[in-house]
Design goal:
Protein name: Dehydrogenase
Number of helices: 8
Organism: Oxalicibacterium solurbis
Strand order of the largest sheet: 3-2-1-4-5-6-7
Radius of gyration: 18 Å
Family: Belongs to the short-chain dehydrogenases/reductases (SDR) family.
Strand content: 5-15%
Order of helices and strands: EHEHEHEHEHEHHHE
């Protein structure tokens, strides 16, 4: 299927690896010009070069902390009018809420709620003026089924979800959609870090923890960044203009509910 977005421009955050990279690669395969953002310059440029060689599209790599006003200003100076925005940031630390400080909460909100909102604010009016825009926020399955040890993430990402629910109904009349992708367990560095933390806390081996988590998923496997990216690319396509304000759960069937 031709997704109808060849020649569009996309700003993709957290794009050096994992789910962000999967989204960037899928968009590049559709002929989308990319601006990629992540913190580590070496890893980001290597990712950008792989995409250039594989898909022949223009890729600009900007290594900044997107959660800071200075970082956002630099990125938006390089890509002021994207047709597609994919927001993404690493989840905050795990633990017991009793040990989290106000600063921990502010950091979580900055990364996983306020930064996406600032990026949307900076780009959505241009999308409306041009009559096309696709915004996809990578959040977490924890928005739908909260995870106790990820309370910082639960709170910040749920706040973003509530904000998007209202705005998405106002922009869709201009062919600008806003949706959220909720990943479950994907084979990424983030999942490896969660397993490592669990191993340290319980004394169980990484293999044992990974196998238990895998077996709890009806699909009996972890997701791949490539299949996540494909879902993102569809939501960004010309065919997805009637989908807005939705939370698409991609978790191999792990969530047990009907709704």
């Amino acid at each position: 299927m031709d997704l109808g977005i060849r020649g569009k421009t996309a700003l993709v955050c957290g794009a050096s690896r994992g789910l962000g990279y999967g989204c960037a690669e899928a968009l590049a395969a559709e002929g989308v010009t990319l601006t990629l953002v992540a913190r580590r310059a070496d890893v980001l440029e290597a990712a950008a070069e792989r995409i250039r060689k594989a898909h022949g599209v223009e890729v600009v790599a900007i290594a900044v902390d997107i959660t800071t006003p200075e970082g956002r200003a630099q990125v938006l100076s390089a890509c002021p009018q994207p047709d597609i925005l994919v927001t993404n940031a690493a989840g905050p630390k795990q633990g017991d809420f009793r040990g989290w400080s106000r600063e921990d909460w502010i950091a979580a909100l900055d990364a996983n709620m306020l930064t996406p909102i600032e990026l949307i604010k900076a780009t959505v009016d241009g999308m409306i003026a041009r009559g096309f825009g696709r915004i996809v926020n990578i959040t977490s399955s924890a928005v739908k089924a909260p995870i106790d040890s990820l309370g910082l993430s639960n709170g910040a990402r749920s706040g973003l979800t509530g904000f998007v629910a209202g705005l998405a109904r106002r922009t869709v009349t201009h062919n600008v959609t806003i949706n959220n992708l909720l990943p479950g367990a994907f084979d990424t560095d983030r999942l490896a870090a969660i397993f490592s933390s669990a191993s340290q806390a319980t004394g169980k081996s990484l293999d044992e923890i990974g196998e238990k988590r895998r077996n709890a998923i009806p699909a009996k496997r972890f997701g791949t960044p490539q299949e996540f990216g494909a879902a993102c690319a569809f939501l960004c396509s010309a065919h997805a203009g009637y989908i807005t304000g939705q939370n698409l759960l991609i978790d191999g069937g792990a969530y047990p509910g009907t709704f």
